[in-house]
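Supplementary Methods. Inverse-folding protocol.

Structures were first reduced to a discrete structure-token string of length 379. This string, shown here, constituted the complete conditioning input.
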């Protein structure tokens, strides 16, 4: 597995940043007519080779960074399995919107689109799929999921089903999103965007912070893993187009289904990486759902105060972050949570905690009541 976001461009960099309970959110590099804090990737991104030059966008350059991080692991994967038995399932919500926005601004200023801009190669979901196929060599079933904030969590469930049906032997799953004016202005119009770094579960929380990034996980059969993908629970409560059910009924159902499919109980879960966006309604609904299933014992962290809400990349990103508890034996502090809202009756970890973690749950909840809970366990 690998990831890239405001905390760093590899698992090691991100892990080192997590050890310091400090938000990486800052001013937006995207020009918008309001104040907000975002989680931007810092530093240069690799360029695409000449044969993929027409597909070059910030999204596909993040994709290349992720693939480079897994160069030896992908080579081993290709050595074990036929390429047509390796699936490629990705999530995104923005696709190439950042590039298209820049092209449109150029059009407004000059009356024509910039030289080299191609809607199909640079804006569409299929563009990143094409680039990723070229970079990874995967030739099995492949598609892009766009279900808002669950976009990169659902591919784990899809890959597990494809593998269970005997259609594939391995899968490359994950998601990528970039910062763009569309999402910043959209969430601001909803009244959901904070002007300052987000503070999930805090009494002072007042909205989300948007981030960018990507994450990839390699799933295989019959290979000794880093961690096990135990199960994935999904639900769709369709309570409201953008708001969660106040009691978190859909969220609770997704978590319960993850437990049921793994054949375990709430007592078997040692940590929850919450969706925890920092909006008053979302955090309260998720806290209600967690409390109903787990009570107030299991430590809960939202990592969005470090990375921002990476939207289409959030599900895969936070599954990787949650897995660090299994491999490293500690969970980070939930940044900005202090003082915790007294109405939040779950165990928010406001300081780094060490321990023995056997199973961890990573939650992703999206617009329209689309809910996913990923359950991972230690080897």
């Amino acid at each position: 597995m690998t990831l890239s976001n405001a905390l760093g461009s590899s698992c090691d960099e991100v892990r080192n940043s997590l050890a310091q309970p400090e938000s990486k959110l800052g001013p937006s590099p995207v020009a918008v007519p309001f104040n907000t804090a975002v989680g931007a990737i810092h530093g240069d991104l690799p360029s695409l080779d000449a044969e993929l030059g027409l597909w070059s966008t910030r999204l596909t350059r993040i994709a290349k960074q992720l693939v480079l991080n897994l160069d030896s692991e992908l080579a081993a994967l290709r050595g074990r399995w036929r390429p047509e038995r390796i699936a490629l399932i990705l999530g995104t919500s923005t696709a190439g919107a950042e590039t298209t926005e820049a092209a449109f601004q150029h059009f407004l200023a000059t009356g024509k689109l910039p030289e080299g801009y191609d809607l199909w190669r640079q804006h569409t979901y299929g563009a990143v799929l094409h680039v990723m196929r070229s970079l990874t060599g995967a030739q099995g079933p492949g598609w892009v999921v766009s279900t808002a904030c669950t976009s990169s969590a659902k591919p784990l469930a899809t890959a597990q089903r494809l593998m269970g049906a005997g259609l594939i032997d391995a899968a490359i799953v994950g998601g990528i999103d970039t910062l763009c004016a569309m999402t910043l202005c959209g969430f601001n119009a909803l009244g959901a965007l904070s002007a300052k770094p987000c503070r999930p579960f805090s009494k002072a929380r007042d909205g989300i912070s948007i981030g960018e990034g990507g994450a990839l996980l390699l799933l295989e059969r019959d290979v000794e893993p880093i961690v096990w993908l135990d199960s994935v629970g999904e639900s769709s409560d369709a309570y409201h187009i953008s708001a969660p059910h106040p009691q978190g009924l859909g969220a609770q159902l997704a978590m319960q289904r993850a437990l049921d499919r793994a054949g375990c109980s709430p007592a078997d879960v040692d940590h929850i990486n919450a969706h925890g966006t920092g909006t008053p309604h979302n955090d309260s609904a998720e806290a209600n759902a967690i409390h109903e299933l787990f009570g107030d014992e299991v430590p809960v962290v939202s990592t969005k105060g470090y990375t921002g809400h990476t939207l289409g990349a959030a599900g895969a990103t936070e599954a990787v972050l949650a897995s660090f508890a299994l491999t490293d034996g500690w969970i980070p502090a939930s940044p900005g949570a202090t003082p915790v809202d007294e109405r939040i009756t779950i165990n928010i970890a406001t300081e780094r905690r060490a321990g023995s973690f056997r199973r961890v749950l990573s939650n992703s909840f999206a617009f329209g009541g689309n809910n996913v809970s990923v359950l991972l366990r230690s080897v």
